């Protein structure tokens, strides 16, 4: 090879080497940038989740009363520390940031009786007014298997708003959208389907709720119930996914099990029957969905009722209805996740609340003739 060609070859090799080095550097820089972005995103999401959790009650179901003293001249920092040390709030730093953001001040010294079930706003209001909250102002029980309309009636009978105001609020699309953003673990855009009767149906958990304000708002009521739902559903999210269900489907499924059962054993068995029907495949054909579609209560479902065309009517649609038909007990959701293994496909209720199962339609008819007709 001539000297000239050797120079050209060397130049070419150097050029290739520099090009490869440049590509390597670009890859390294890109990896670093992506890593930094991921760190920021993960950190931001984790921070948001932590702050949101820190602003929630320490224990929404607690009935414990904790007495403590706020000394004269206490700073907001020392008050926050006292509250955290006594288990009234989760994080004193978040509490301080929150009251600064809300521009709250003029907290009064004195002896207080707080509860771990109190919200941050309830605590702040108490500290500002000097009111000692030994007992909740209202204690309201929402039983399992209730619809939003039934809940509206219960709350309207005890609090300072009407059934119509409650129903209007829970159907307010902009408010529901805010709730989806605030409770992404349990709420999704699935509840915004225009054919769903009430977006929050099934998500307002059955429990006893304590309210410390003189006039709790509808938002306070709804968000306290959603927080309870989140506390129940969130630990089960992975198990729900393992059953190839979305949270919305699981909540819907649990509402059907709730309406068709009266005990833990019944719930697990009925969940197993429903799974068997879906595997057949056959329609779920559960009467409570017909009654929900009709929008009323009837002692007995008639054959003509089964014909109602509704996305809730499981005699009409395949699989689960479009959404929940009531709230549910935790055991109903657990039954959906861990159903009884059974060969039964049919069941019916007798007048005494017993359930009679059958593997075949022939046996089911025999049960019907024996226990119903």
TrEMBL record:
Bilayer disposition of the protein: Single-pass membrane protein
Site features described as Important for catalytic activity, chain residue numbers: 260
Keywords: Cell membrane, Cell wall biogenesis/degradation, Lyase, Membrane, Transmembrane, Transmembrane helix
Main location: membrane
Segments traversing the membrane: 28-51
Catalytically driven reaction(s): a peptidoglycan chain = a peptidoglycan chain with N-acetyl-1,6-anhydromuramyl-[peptide] at the reducing end + a peptidoglycan chain with N-acetylglucosamine at the non-reducing end
Keyword Cell division tagged: no
Gene3D superfamilies named among the record's database cross-references: Endolytic murein transglycosylase (3.30.1490.480)
Record GO terms (molecular function): lytic endotransglycosylase activity
Top enzyme category: lyase
Enzyme Commission code: 4.2.2.29
Domain of life: Bacteria
Alphabetical GO biological process terms: cell wall organization; peptidoglycan biosynthetic process
Subcellular location, record wording: Cell membrane
Keyword Lipoprotein: no
GO cellular component: plasma membrane
NCBIfam families, A to Z: endolytic transglycosylase MltG (TIGR00247)
Main function: Functions as a peptidoglycan terminase that cleaves nascent peptidoglycan strands endolytically to terminate their elongation.
Similarity-based family: Belongs to the transglycosylase MltG family.
Entry protein name: Endolytic murein transglycosylase
């Amino acid at each position: 090879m001539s000297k000239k060609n050797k120079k050209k070859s060397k130049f070419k090799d150097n050029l290739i080497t520099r090009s490869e080095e440049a590509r390597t550097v670009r890859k390294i820089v890109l990896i670093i940038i992506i890593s930094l972005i991921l760190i920021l995103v993960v950190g931001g999401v984790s921070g948001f989740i932590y702050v949101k959790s820190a602003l929630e009650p320490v224990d929404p179901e607690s009935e414990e009363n904790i007495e403590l003293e706020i000394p004269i001249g206490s700073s907001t920092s020392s008050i926050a520390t006292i509250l955290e040390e006594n288990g009234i709030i989760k994080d004193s730093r978040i509490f301080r940031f929150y009251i600064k953001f809300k521009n709250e001040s003029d907290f009064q010294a004195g002896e207080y009786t707080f509860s771990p079930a109190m919200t941050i706003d309830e605590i702040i209001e108490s500290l500002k007014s000097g009111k000692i909250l030994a007992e909740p102002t209202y204690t309201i029980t929402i039983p399992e298997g209730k619809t939003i309309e039934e809940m509206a009636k219960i709350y309207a009978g005890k609090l300072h708003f009407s059934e119509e105001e409650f129903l209007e609020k829970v159907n307010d699309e902009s408010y529901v959208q805010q709730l989806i953003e605030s409770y992404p673990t349990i709420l999704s855009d699935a509840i915004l389907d225009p054919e769903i009767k009430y977006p929050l149906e099934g998500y307002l958990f059955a429990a006893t709720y304590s309210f410390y304000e003189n006039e709790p708002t509808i938002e306070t009521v709804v968000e306290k119930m959603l927080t309870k739902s989140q506390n129940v559903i969130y630990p089960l999210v992975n198990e729900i996914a393992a059953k190839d269900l979305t949270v919305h489907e699981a909540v819907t499924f649990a509402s059907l099990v709730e309406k068709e059962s009266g005990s833990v054993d019944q719930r697990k068995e009925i969940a197993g029957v429903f799974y068997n029907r879906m595997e057949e495949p056959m329609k779920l054909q559960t009467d409570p969905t017909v009654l929900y579609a009709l929008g009323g209560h009837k002692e007995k479902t008639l054959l003509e009722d089964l014909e109602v065309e509704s996305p809730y009517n499981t005699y009409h649609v395949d699989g689960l209805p479009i959404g929940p038909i009531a709230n549910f007990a935790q055991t109903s959701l657990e039954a959906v996740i861990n159903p009884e293994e059974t060969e039964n496909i049919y069941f019916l209720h007798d007048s005494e609340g017993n359930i009679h199962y059958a593997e075949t339609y022939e046996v089911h008819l025999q049960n019907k003739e024996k226990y119903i007709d």
